[in-house]
Amino acid sequence: MLNILKSQDLTLPATPEQWLHELQQPTAIEIIGKQSDQWRVISVLIHGNEPSGFYATYNFLKQGLIPETNLSIIISSVRAARHEPLFTHRYMPGEYDLNRRFGIIDCHDRVTELAIQITEYIRTLSPQFIVDLHNTSGQSPAFCVSISSHPSIHKIASLFTKEIVVTQLVIGSLMEQNFNCPITTIECGGSQNDKSHNVALKGLTGLALVHDINDIDANNMDVYNHPVRVRVHAGISLDYGDQADTDVDITLINKIENLNQDVTTAGSHIGWLDRSLTDCLLAINDHGEDIITHLFHIEDGKLLAQRDIKIFMATRRADIAMDDCLFYVVEA
After folding, report:
1. How confident is the model at residue 175 (pLDDT cuts 50, 70, 90)?
2. Model confidence, pTM
């Protein structure tokens, strides 16, 4: 059940970790702004292992700043974030990933019910915009993901990053829902990186205090279109290493997260496969086509890039890679 708290009723403890323990359930913090008839919405902690938005929320509230409009900050996966060790569980063991349950209305499990409550709550506010703050599973620069390349998205994103990925993939995320306003996801960078926490705080503060998002200068944004999720087939095993592991089907290079930094050129070595490419991996595009052989090929057991590509969200966490995806790819 989504709890609603007024910021003036909060007494924050000494650390964000202590505050997390005080929160008993998903909570929306409402802060009254100068324009009290308008709302802006920030979503944080949809995944329990992505704390930058939560840290930013705590530090923003500590400053006692008055936002330009009313501001609601929704803190979603409190239970998963609190599940020991803190901030390591994407979602509660045995439950659904919250950010795959938005838009579903015919299920009544705990997680889907929360997605419905969050959606209905946001719609009651009719906000000017919505920003969903995340962390990447591996080390990565910050980037924006959106279903639109509207100028308003560029302006919002520019407070966090210079890179925008425009997607039409449907995965059940908050970002895909229609709220009649701009909505975007910000991947702030790796979850263990102080730089990511600073990106989140700086961006959140900028969004809260700006008089009008149209006043934001958003020149020279880099836009990448039509990403695909590179995923493993059911039953395929995965590990990471500096050489092929004969006990698994796929071995990705140990430095896979370095590929998040720049363009991966054609012929670059990604890993090793002991089975055929199509037996191990798939990459479904916007049209429902599997284009894995368009992006990669096998040579002497090595997995190589078929063309110049940009990789996002590569991670060395095998559990997340297997459950969600290895990484996202766009053609460079």
Report:
1. very high
2. 0.92
